[in-house]
Write a structure and sequence with these properties.
Elements (H helix, E strand, L loop, with lengths): L2 H5 L8 H7 L5 H12 L22 H8 L4 E6 L2 E4 L2 E3 L2 E6 L1 H8 L1 H4 L3 E5 L6 E9 L2 E8 L6 H10 L2 H8 L2 E6 L9 H10 L6
Antiparallel strand pairs: 1-4, 2-3, 3-6, 4-8, 5-8, 6-7
Helix pairs in contact: 3-4, 4-9, 7-8
Length: about 200
């Protein structure tokens, strides 16, 4: 690998050398490990994130998200609980891809705790809308709509950003959305999700 390639960046400032590792990530654990490294600051490329690092809002929960990625949940989106303050409020949430066994266990959080889990089977399309962010009295972010890359265009995006094998795997994986219903609360959701993931026997 040339010195030029190790420092070359794409139009979004992402390090191309870190992108090359994603070309070999064909499993959820592999994708989770690379995402954990990005969250820990040792990688400057994350598929689907058009910047070399995450935004400042994610910093307080980055370590917990890294743990989730190393324990069976390849995270896609998240936000910390915030507010309500100056007209802005957020419910803490995290979404990601996982195995059927993990999705089933995580879904129990909705039955055994006050936390909410919405699981989407491979190929399932859902149009539910659960508000998770409000600004000046308006709902600006919702969860509940399936984002599994089942359409050819979405699969192509993942294939371009990572590799085709991972894109096809994600299309056949469960997608789960988890949120804390209490506006602004922190340090409840992510720890509960991690505890649940660690309770799943290895190999399942």
């Amino acid at each position: 690998m040339s010195d030029q390639f190790t420092t070359e960046r794409d139009n979004y400032g992402r390090l191309l050398a870190d992108r090359e590792v994603w070309r070999q990530a064909a499993t959820l654990p592999a994708a989770g490990e690379l995402t954990a490294r990005w969250l820990e600051g040792t990688s400057q490329y994350q598929p689907g994130t058009l910047a070399p690092r995450f935004d400042d809002e994610t910093l307080p929960i980055a370590g917990q998200l890294a743990e989730l990625n190393r324990n069976g949940l390849f995270t896609k989106e998240s936000q910390p609980g915030l507010g309500p303050d100056a007209g802005h409020a957020q419910r803490e949430y995290v979404t990601g891809f996982c195995s059927a066994a993990s999705a089933g266990r995580l879904l129990r959080l909705s039955a055994e705790t006050e936390l909410i889990a919405i699981a989407h089977a491979p190929g399932e399309v859902s149009q539910a809308s659960v508000p998770v962010t409000q600004h000046d009295g308006e709902v600006v972010t919702v969860l509940g709509s399936s984002e599994i890359p089942v359409e050819s265009e979405q699969i192509q995006d993942w294939a371009h950003e990572a590799n085709e094998a991972l894109a096809l795997l994600l299309a056949d994986s469960w997608y789960i959305e988890l949120l804390d219903p209490v506006w602004g609360r922190q340090q409840r959701l992510l720890s509960s999700v991690l505890e649940t993931l660690k309770s799943i026997p290895e190999g399942i």
